[in-house]
Q: What sequence folds into this?
DNA sequence: AAGTGGTCTAGACCACGGC
DNA sequence: CCGTGGTCTAGACCACTTA
């Protein structure tokens, strides 16, 4: 009676019922069942789901297991619970849209032919703006980096970064070459950075950027600004990525989708 | 011995320990405790947390409660678990950045002085592109809407939308005036829309848009395209919002922050 | 008062990793 | 082998809503 290969005696794909022999945990099966029923229109936004006790009986599960499934549905924004009243299906709300950097990541992690061209990499005096961002005095030394990322020979992202220069500390290792960016995106290694603040802006390309990215001056692009902090809450890295609009797009699904 | 007002005998703010009399559930307290310890640097990225059994003993909690806390930390991207091995603190990864429409929402929901100026609202033949998006034949009727949102008299968002025109069905009610947009953003009402697809692009303003939004032609802006579907999976609404770059910015926090 | 969601217990058995 | 995370049970008590 343990999970393992698949279905023993039950009919092939018995959706809407818990298969105790499935590799898939019962609570996930329950989540799937309710999402399917909502997507099918059986439960419309605003509708009330059966009470937890009823669900327990119907599927032969213990309250904790049912609760776990419902908590997942809540986290995913599918339902809403009101204590003492019931569990209700949520409507679509635009503000629930959540965009991530998946697309940008895939651009950079294109293993086939991503290369980094270092345009500049040296130690320089911080400009007033950079000094403020990094919490330094104007004129302090920072590592200044300008890089161009190319996939299959075509420029796709321009990065301009400023790193804290502190002879004491081993340079925030990684930020200095290709691996660096890959590491930041994939999350490997990284033990010196505690947190970061990111923002996305819409901009038009200046003369220099346009030249580097081989686009028309004034053409639209995303500007992704970042500030990273170490475990002492000191900002250690400030900079931005510029990516032409024709190479990048953020997408999001909202509401009730049958499958991910 | 039940949850209620606050602390009975324990010292004021005994962080790092579970207060059984707090209004805050034990599992949330545990989450807070671990996040604080990680943010403080006690557990660095890559470090291994105590085993669940140890945590149970240390805080006098049952396994399910501890597990629930850890599951939350996993969902929040704070830790990663490896079966048979342990629970480990995750490093910062750029691709975890998640942006939402909070900022845009606040623009529109500025109760003080948001108003909608309807520029156009009529029934027209669908253009080939719109027809394709809405799954219609070119030339079918659609409701065509162009609106300008202003806060305190200043234009901030331009919306261009196309709605399925079907005499059969009560018009996807809401999409037609201010309340509409508010409703979509806040998620009130809405029982006819099942799901939506959104995308964010960087663009430059055309002549007409620039005029309406009182900006320079060619200045940068966000274009937020949307397609909404009903419970029969028919696209019922296609359109886009245009918002000048100087009025909008998407931000995200990644990594380990002490407080939200 | 009855029904609902919310939290929590004290175990159980399993699958997996490393010694 | 033992320790780890992963799932699940069969209840308990509480707070809240509704009538």
A:
């Amino acid at each position: 009676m343990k999970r393992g290969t698949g279905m023993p005696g039950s009919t092939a794909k018995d959706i809407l019922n818990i298969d105790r022999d499935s590799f898939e945990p019962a609570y996930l099966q329950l989540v799937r069942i309710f999402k399917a029923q909502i997507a099918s229109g059986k439960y419309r936004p605003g509708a009330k789901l059966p009470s937890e006790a009823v669900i327990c009986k119907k599927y032969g599960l213990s309250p904790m297991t049912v609760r776990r499934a419902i908590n997942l549905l809540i986290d995913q924004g599918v339902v809403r619970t009101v204590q003492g009243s019931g569990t209700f299906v949520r409507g679509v709300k635009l503000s629930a849209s959540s965009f991530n950097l998946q697309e940008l990541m895939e651009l950079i992690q294109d293993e086939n032919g991503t290369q980094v061209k270092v345009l500049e990499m040296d130690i320089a005096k911080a400009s007033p703006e950079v000094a403020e961002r990094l919490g330094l005095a104007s004129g302090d030394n920072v590592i200044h980096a300008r890089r161009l990322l190319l996939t299959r020979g075509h420029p796709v992202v321009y990065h301009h970064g400023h790193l804290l220069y502190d002879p004491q500390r081993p340079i925030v290792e990684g930020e200095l070459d290709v691996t660096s960016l890959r590491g930041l995106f994939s999350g490997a290694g990284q033990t010196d950075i505690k947190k970061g603040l990111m923002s996305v802006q819409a901009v038009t390309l200046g003369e220099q950027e346009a030249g580097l990215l081989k686009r028309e001056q004034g053409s639209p692009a995303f500007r992704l600004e970042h500030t990273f902090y170490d475990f002492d809450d000191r900002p250690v890295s400030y900079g931005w990525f510029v990516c032409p609009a024709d190479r990048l797009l953020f997408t999001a699904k909202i509401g009730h989708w049958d499958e991910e």
Q: What stands out?
A: Chain B touches chain A through 62 residues (CB under 8 Å).
